[in-house]
Amino acid sequence: MKTRKFPLALFTMLTIGAAAFLVGCATTGMDRSVKTSSSIQEVDDEIGKMVVQLDKTSVSLDTLLKSGPSDVKKSFETYSDNVVKVEKEGNRVLKRMEEMKSQSKEYFAEWEKQGSAYANPRIRELSEERRLKLAETYAKVPAAGAGIKVTYLAYLSDLKEIQIFLSNDLTPQGIASITPVANNTANDLEALKASLQPVVAALAEIKAELQGGTK
Question: Does residue 32 lie in a domain region?
Answer without folding.
Answer: no
